[in-house]
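RETRY 2/3 - previous attempt timed out on the joint model. Re-submitting the same 776-residue input unchanged.
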Amino acid sequence: MLYIVISYLWASILLYLLLGGADFGAGILELFTSDKHRSNTRKTMYKAIGPIWEANHMWLIIAIVILFVGFPAIYTTASVYLHIPLVIMLMGIIARGTAFSFRNYDAVVDEMQLIYSRIFVYASVITPLFLGIIAGSTVAGRIDPAAHDFVSAYVFSWLHWFSVAVGLFTVSICGFLAAVYLIGEADNETDRRRFITKTKTTNIAAFACGALVFIAAKYEKIPLAEWIFGNAVGILAISAASVSLILFWWLLVRKKTQVLRVLAAFQVTMILIAITYRHYPNIILQKSAPPLSLMNAANDKTIAALGWALLIGSIFILPALFYLIYSFDRRNRKLAGTGHT
Amino acid sequence: MNDFIAARSQMALSLGFHIIFSCIGMVMPFFMAVSHFYWLRTHNIVYRNVTRAWSKGVAIFFATGAVSGTVLSFELGLLWPEFMRQAGPIFGMPFSLEGTAFFIEAIALGFFLYGWDRFNPWFHWFTGVIVGVSGLVSGILVVSANAWMNDPTGFDYVRGQFLHIDPIKAMFNPAWFQQALHMSIAAFAATGFAVAGIHALMILRRQNILFHTKAFKIAVVFATAAAVLQPLSGDLSAKYVAKRQPAKLAAMEAHYVTSASAPLIIGGIPDDKAKKVNYAIEIPGLLSFMIDGDFHSIVKGLDSIPPEDQPPVAVTHFAFQIMVGLGMLMLTIAIMYFTAVLRRKNWRNSKWLLRLFVIATPIGFIAVEAGWIVTEVGRQPWILQGIMRTAEAVTPMPGILYSFYLFTAVYFSLAIAVVFLLYRQIKMVGKIYDI
Ligand code: HDD
Ligand code: HEM
Ligand code: HEM
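RETRY 2/3 succeeded.
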């Protein structure tokens, strides 16, 4: 049962990265869109993510609940030593979620829209930035339960070049996912071209940020290269991602956009596998204490109950979720006339 | 204010904020389903307009409720890591099931909000009902987690260790039923009175009378029915508290000294030093009767509790008086309303009745907040009744004070923004839905 719970944890992190990520990315793209096209980008985005907006963010809650029920040591250690970035991320989540719904449901359309949009856009950058910082900090080994002063216990635990680089990488991945996703949602050729261009730039940005992560790791003496390339699974995952990246560009240049989404999702999945495989089952690496492992879970009864809750929950959730996505996708396609080419 | 008090205040603020949104998120879908049902049955366009106008409000509240709930699931660890380390695996069951319920709610809401004219009308209606049912289920589940903090079961506590953990037993702890029942009814009463009050105000202002009358009628039925049931369920809760948490009951009633034929104390100002309540109305023997059905039975007072285990009396007592007082007021309004409806057909014209509802707009929510203060402050100094103290659970990180200021600022701005949006929503009814 423990392995079922762990699979769910991993899957919900992946889905949050893919779906929530595309969702954050839509806001990030809006920031980097010229004023002329901004309202078009917004419209496409709203049409695409409106109905599944709430569902995209449930994956985070599922992951958190799995952590605090099944792996309380991990949840509480992160909560204590990464308190500050978590609070900033929460502020981002609050600002973004409310600004998004305010801008769609405000009965009066006036200059307030501008304020909502501004909040939405900035929060769309800050939230994944800090999500990345938190993720980077868990493996950076700077969390130090023996630290005596405030700064080394609660600030340097997360503030270093490596985590910041991971944060930037996360932001660029989100932008990339959104751009790819929106190509298929655009309802005219100009928009489609714009999103194709955006896909190219964000992909290059993601590549650059990825390189930055390696440089930062080197600088902070984190053996990242060894983690990823020191084992067959990591090498395989990265090779698969690279091959699919070449294929991706080949298709992108030829404007054959059908399978781009699948390839993009595949790449992100491979990256997540490469990063997590070597650590498994350790989740938090600490400075002066042993790593916190998934094997050090709650008692068997709790894990069994949690596993059943997840399995039974999926029976209800997954079909409904697919039907939701399916019916709105079909509908949008009909509206767009041409549909996804 | 020290960090410990700041952490408690931040928790109270976040929950006090969230509870408003969750009550609305639980109850409004039912109101919408009724109005939607009438629309599908009668094809009277006003019902469609009411449903649509409400659903926009619900979307705003849902998003705010969802983000404040997400924040809460992190705050439990950010503020109370020691508690969560021990308690997470024990009382996590309702939270993990709640995750499922929320998820279904979010999916159903997607169908409902974006599904107008896209699906079979009855399927569309049904998705709205699912939103309500799953919201209610999640409310019940979270309250069951809170009930476990009041009455921890499902484990053996041996020399500081939690052994033989049984999460299912913890979920169905002996307190969950009364609390969940009382909370669910409270959500209907609070939301019902708030919605009825707003529409009553618009009727008095003679704006879109047809629209607001239909909306008022739906809300008022739920509100008044809940107001009648609530004191009964509250009585059940109080009897239970007397049995399992005598310290809380003594603080609620400001009952300082253990005595037979204990009086019911109404109002007054508790004086901790003199161990008595000044300026109160006392009804002899009634407290004994309400708890045991016997005017002469003995009721434990605060003197039977060691001083270090006593909750703050004044806050608990005031909060309890406010809740019960408002509950009685709601009951009175409900009875007057039923009488008015039965006695004369043209009740809508009786301005005083509508005015009464306008005045009553916030009282349900005030009672909800007061009720939670009774439950939470009355449990102090325990975070887990009899087992773990709140002070042992708090995070070691200093500077929570600043976090508290930050959250206060954010929640207050959010509250203002939501009120502002709601105001605009109501103002636009005339423009969008005028017929
Ligand atoms: C509309 C709101 C409302 C109204 C009118 C009342 N209550 Fe209440 N009460 C609540 C809303 C509430 C609440 C916010 O929902 C609480 C907090 C925790 C809970 O489960 O319900 C609560 C808690 C609560 C508790 C504490 C339960 C515990 O700690 O486990 C007691 C003893 C009562 N109530 C009793 C009453 C009585 C005797 C009422 C008589 C009129 C009453 N309540 C009206
Ligand atoms: C599962 C549900 C809940 C959990 C796990 C929970 C947990 C906590 C915790 C850990 C604290 C801090 C310790 C304390 O001061 O008591 C607290 C305080 C508080 N909570 Fe709850 N709570 C829950 C439900 C609620 C709800 C729904 C409300 C609604 C408004 C609420 C109102 C409060 C208040 C007012 C305090 C402050 C008490 C004080 O300052 O002494 N609680 N709660
Ligand atoms: C510590 C306590 C609590 C936590 C951790 C918590 C957590 C959450 C979370 C994560 C959400 C968002 C889910 C979504 O996206 O739909 C949420 C929403 C919700 N919560 Fe809470 N909650 C708490 C207390 C309560 C209480 C006491 C109630 C009710 C009595 C409640 C009722 C609801 C409902 C009905 C929703 C659905 C949102 C809506 O319809 O507005 N919650 N909560």
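The two ends of chain A are 43 Å apart (CA to CA). Closing ticket.
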